[in-house]
Amino acid sequence: MGTQFLTDKKGNKTGVLLSMKQYNKLIEKLEDLEDVRLYDEAKREDDGYRISFDDYIKTRESKKANV
Description:
Blueprint: E1 4-7, E2 13-17, H1 20-45, H2 53-65
């Protein structure tokens, strides 16, 4: 199926008609691009600080005890 456009009375393109298959493929690609963008952002902001999972649990439990 070729690309179909919606036009106004003057013939100007105002929209695009996509099959569900084309639409879903486009959305999937956009989501992939967003994942890459978020990864790149996280990588830029990474300060290298890490804690072990056990330390995280201890911190979390001590915060709950103080509430």
